[in-house]
Amino acid sequence: MKARVVIIDAFWQLYKEKSIKQITVTELMTKAGYHRSVFYQYFRDIYDLLKQEQDAFFEEVDNLWQDVSIEILNENYSTVLIEKINELSLKYDFKVGILLKHNDETDFKNRFNNTLRKNLYNLLKLQENDAKVKLALEVYISGQLESLVYFHRHKNKLDFKDYLEVTKSIFRTCVKQIEESHSKNEENHD
């Protein structure tokens, strides 16, 4: 497995500098210090390597939500989730910055939105047929992604804790809006 890790590291170094269309297996394996044939023990092609890396990231994002409950809205909510998010951001910081830079090749933003949407619908037990709720959630999801892009562009001025602090308060506001919409809908149906 050491070879796989070295190949992946070499890939990210190359991908930081150039488009995926410009990266060849030969170039990658020269940088990694392995024969070209070793690459095919782990990946079908360069795009498969990228897909595996993105899949691993989004699997970890999904796993973050497994132990999350609605208490996230409570001011006294345990900092465990924030610590997990911080850990994940540190682990993937370099890669997320590159994926955002090459979004036209990776569709990273769309996958991020879909992952966040799915997990929020599950956490908040939302009905997909409520247009106002859906609107509030879409505003939040779009804002969350753009704030992530902004954070990566201005990392030299911001700490990740700043990012979490701001987005956590926006999340609470969004959920309050969703709860109000639910309440009004229930009143209208009674």
TrEMBL record:
<protein>
    <recommendedName>
        <fullName>HTH tetR-type domain-containing protein</fullName>
    </recommendedName>
</protein>
<dbReference type="GO" id="GO:0003677">
    <property type="term" value="F:DNA binding"/>
</dbReference>
<dbReference type="InterPro" id="IPR001647">
    <property type="entry name" value="HTH_TetR"/>
</dbReference>
<keyword id="KW-0238">DNA-binding</keyword>
<dbReference type="InterPro" id="IPR009057">
    <property type="entry name" value="Homeodomain-like_sf"/>
</dbReference>
<feature type="DNA-binding region" description="H-T-H motif">
    <location>
        <begin position="24"/>
        <end position="43"/>
    </location>
</feature>
<feature type="domain" description="HTH tetR-type">
    <location>
        <begin position="1"/>
        <end position="61"/>
    </location>
</feature>
